[in-house]
Design goal:
Layout (H helix, E strand, L loop, with lengths): L2 E2 L5 E2 L3 E3 L15 E6 L5 H8 L9 E3 L5 E3 L16 H5 L4 H9 L3 H9 L13 E6 L3 E3 L3 E2 L4 H18 L6 E3 H4 L15
Parallel strand pairs: 3-6, 4-7, 4-10, 5-7
Antiparallel strand pairs: 1-2, 5-6, 8-9
């Protein structure tokens, strides 16, 4: 279990604290999920440079190529890391028939996302307001090749971090998702990320 300060900063030997206040938005009252991303950059430095720009989007943690884990935002603050939500009902087909039909009638990803964000947590996918984001350094190699393979050092750190966050924040392992599963991202993003043995 992680030791977390009142400000949402994690105190752990494996985590280097490098907070970017510009990533932090409003308070996050409850964490219902974890979303795993890839940076589409080849170094942590280029990601950190982006995090310093005005209005930057980013996640709460970043895992470098050597497995180093950085905390980049408070776990008690919302960050913009998810984007437009997919419909959990449409994606999983595990919902009432009437709900499925209603979701099918909504045209456009912005409207569908707004519809999803109005739903209770766990009925919808976790979004910006209730999820922790973990970025893994790795760029998109090409349209066909997709994103770089997440290496073993990164996956080892990801497994440890997810396990600790799940225990500390009371998140279900079923609510840990790759970014493209829940939002409109390239399917190869974080495809090779492994957080379970």
């Amino acid at each position: 279990m992680l030791l977390v300060s009142k400000a949402g900063i994690v105190d752990a030997e494996r985590i280097k604290v490098k907070i970017f206040p510009g990533l932090e938005r409003t308070p996050m009252l409850k964490v219902n999920g974890i979303v795993v991303h890839q940076t589409n950059s080849s170094t942590s430095g280029s990601t950190f440079a982006h995090y310093q720009s005005a209005g930057a989007h980013g996640a709460h943690f970043l895992i470098d190529k050597d497995g180093t884990i950085y905390q980049t935002a408070s776990v008690y603050k919302r960050t913009n890391h998810v984007g437009w939500l997919k419909s959990r009902c449409l994606e999983t087909r595990k919902c009432a028939p009437a709900e499925f039909r209603d979701a099918q009638k909504i045209k456009g990803i912005k409207k569908l996302s707004a519809h999803e964000y109005k739903k209770e947590p766990l009925v919808r996918y976790p979004g910006n307001n209730d999820s922790i984001g973990i970025e893994i350094v790795g760029r998109e190699i090409g349209k066909v090749e997709g994103y770089e393979t997440v290496n073993e050092a990164q996956n080892g750190s990801l497994r440890w971090l997810v396990r600790e966050l799940v225990e500390t924040l009371g998140v279900s392992m079923r609510e840990v998702h790759r970014h493209p599963e829940i939002s409109y991202k390239k399917p190869s993003e974080a495809r090779s990320a492994k957080w379970q043995d």
